[in-house]
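hey m, so remember when u said the tokens were messed up on ur end? i reran from scratch. heres the input so u can diff it against urs
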Amino acid sequence: MVKKTTPIKNGKERNEKGQFVYGNTASVGHGHPKNKPSIPTMIKTIGNEIPEGETKTRLELMGLRLWDMALKGNIRAIELVCNRLESRIAIAQNIILTEPDKLIEIE
């Protein structure tokens, strides 16, 4: 069941633009919890750990595995490696090669 709510009207705690005015306490305690790490921070922390019996971090091991997959011909791995080395690969669409030096574009 979806709970229906009505929008809050601009009252004394908001200005004409709908922004909270200085000294307002309506939103106190409703922000991001302090000292709680974000998901990217947790992933980086885990990725920088060295697993037992290894000499490289998890991120280094993952990069090596990705590189090996790309060398074996995995197209998705090749795209990921190329996107990290340069920028996104531009994919040509609607183009037919008729001769080695001539291109015809289809509309």
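this time it looks ok to me. Helices lie at 39-47, 58-71, 75-85. if urs says something different then somethings off w ur setup not the seq
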